[in-house]
Specification:
mainly alpha, two-stranded antiparallel sheet, 21 helices, about 5% strand
Length: about 525
């Protein structure tokens, strides 16, 4: 008798575009189910003006009905156009395409990184990614393609570089080496919650400076170990195809001619580099001048309606913050043009536009992916499910009877879970600060430390939620550089790839926060973990 064949279920492998379609449909259906079950919650927020407590009752909005479907259809265009990663991605894509087509990016990578140790390069990428969060989410757009190019030049799989850059930004989003937009967004909620206990309490913009700088270095070191020991071995090196065809003809090589061509090329590249360096310095000086107040024609990118300089540059209406992506794109475009002209790679305007076209021609699928991601995030937000789950987390923390370090640990873990569904730090802190800050402040834990706890907890899971606006950029670049086009990297496969990074960094964050509190080191100038 023959052996019976075992039946095996074939694994379904969906393209990331299909996954986002299914996520949209699933969210719409889930909203109908939860709405019928009257899924809702009530949570408290604080008025920053008079410190009065405001009760908010919120319920799931059903999108699986006439009005819901009308909203989805009528707002699709608006959701897509207003989706921040779209415009930022396109602007940076143009800038980086000029760098690539001019040959400048390849020249820099070979000139600077060719002889540098791989581990040092990985550390540099992750460190720059970590501190890049000082200005919005620019690191996702600049560092991911550049990291892929550097890894490729080094003979390593560019997918490893993409993971290193993305994880550095996402899992280090709670820290940087100086204050930035996060402090401006969170401090009002921290101050309002602290004043429920002490009506004169003040939270400085520099309150978290020391712990931010230290954690940036620690996370970069741990991240380097994860990438080198786990991520790089997973993807391996680039497999080079060897030409096995035999050519019977013997080619006569003129050594002098080859050497002369090499010298000519080297001369052009060095001249292009000089042009690019001068252009880069001029552009940087112009941008620096545009953020210096009280000089002739200066301060163009500052919000002069704000009282302090940090708020002028990092406030909600800061021109510097809103225009930084465009500024960086201009720097890349002008620098790339200068190099291309100097190296004779660009002989006329047609060469420039053909180079841009060649580098952007494969972005059709990426645009579709971003479109569907924008719809999914907008639809999920409209249902209020993320806000309700965060409100439930707030109520759970508020109901806990124990205090001190155990409450701190539970709060960290619950905030990390809430971040999977409500990814904006300010949105979460508005709900969570009133129930976390007062009891822990009375347990001798300072509000400034708790503000950093929010940022750290936010970073623990920021890289593994499809509701993060820039997660789609990660998935897009993974597929752009994926050589196996028959097996695209979907949403859940992308999460699986970075899950080891998420787990190890989360443990690192937890140990760092608890250890810092126990030791009692200052977290900023004159500020400690305790009150």
């Amino acid at each position: 008798m023959g052996r019976k064949k075992k039946l095996r279920l074939k694994k379904l492998k969906f393209h990331p575009i299909t996954v986002y379609v299914l996520l949209i449909l699933g969210t719409v259906i889930l909203s109908a189910i939860l709405s019928s079950l009257n899924f809702q919650t009530t949570y408290s927020t604080i008025s920053a003006t008079d410190l009065s407590t405001i009760q908010n009752t919120i319920m799931v909005e059903n999108l699986f009905n006439y009005d819901g479907l009308k909203y989805i259809i009528s707002n699709a265009s608006k959701n897509f156009i207003s989706f921040a990663p779209l415009s930022m991605f396109l602007m940076m894509a143009v800038g980086i395409s000029v760098l690539i087509s001019s040959g400048f990016l390849d020249f820099i990578c070979k000139k600077v990184f060719q002889k540098v140790d791989n581990k040092k390069i990985t550390f540099l990428i992750i460190f720059l990614a970590t501190i890049s969060t000082i200005i919005n989410d620019i690191g996702y757009l600049i560092l991911i393609p550049i990291a892929a190019t550097i890894y490729e030049v080094k003979g390593r799989n560019p997918l490893s570089g993409i993971v290193a850059a993305f994880c550095g930004v996402a899992f280090g989003a709670g820290t940087t080496i100086f204050v930035g937009s996060s402090e401006v967004a969170l401090i009002p909620y921290t101050t309002a919650a602290a004043r429920l206990v002490d009506s004169t309490y003040h939270v400085s913009l520099l309150s978290n400076l020391f712990i931010m700088i230290t954690s940036s270095i620690i996370l970069s070191i741990v991240g380097t170990v994860i990438v080198e020991k786990i991520v790089v071995p997973r993807f391996g090196k680039i497999k080079e195809k060897k030409d096995l065809t035999m050519d019977s003809e013997v080619e006569v090589i003129d050594v002098e001619e080859v050497e002369q061509d090499r010298l000519n090329k080297e001369y052009k590249e060095n001249r292009g580099f000089k042009y690019a360096l001068i252009t880069f310095i001029i552009m940087v000086l112009l941008f620096i001048y545009s953020v210096i107040p009280d000089l002739p024609l200066s301060g163009m990118l500052l919000d002069m309606n704000e009282d302090t300089y940090l708020r002028q540059i990092f406030g909600d209406n800061s021109y510097f913050q809103d225009g930084f992506t465009y500024m960086m794109s201009l720097v890349f475009i002008t620098t790339g043009l200068a190099y291309g002209i100097g190296s004779k790679k660009f002989k006329n305007d047609r060469d420039v536009f053909e180079g841009i076209h060649d580098n952007l021609q494969n972005l059709g699928g990426v645009i579709v992916l971003i479109f569907l991601a924008s719809q999914f995030i907008a639809v999920f937000k409209k249902t209020n499910i993320g806000t309700i789950l965060t409100g439930i987390v707030a109520n759970v923390i508020d109901s806990i009877t124990f205090s001190g370090v155990p409450l701190l640990i539970v709060s960290i873990l619950l905030i990390a879970i809430a971040n999977l569904f409500l990814t904006t730090a300010g949105g979460k802190w508005q709900i969570l600060a009133p129930v976390i800050v007062p009891p822990l402040m009375q347990s001798n834990i300072s509000p400034q430390f708790l503000q950093f706890v929010l940022r750290a907890s936010d970073s623990m899971t920021k890289g593994i939620t499809p509701l993060s606006a820039f997660f789609v950029i990660f998935v897009a670049y993974m597929n752009i550089y994926n050589k196996d086009k028959e097996n695209p990297i979907g949403v859940f496969k992308a999460i699986k790839i970075i899950m080891p990074y998420c787990i190890i960094i989360s443990i690192t964050w937890l140990l760092l926060l608890i250890g810092w509190y126990i030791i009692g080191l200052p977290i900023g100038p004159g500020v400690y973990p305790t009150v």
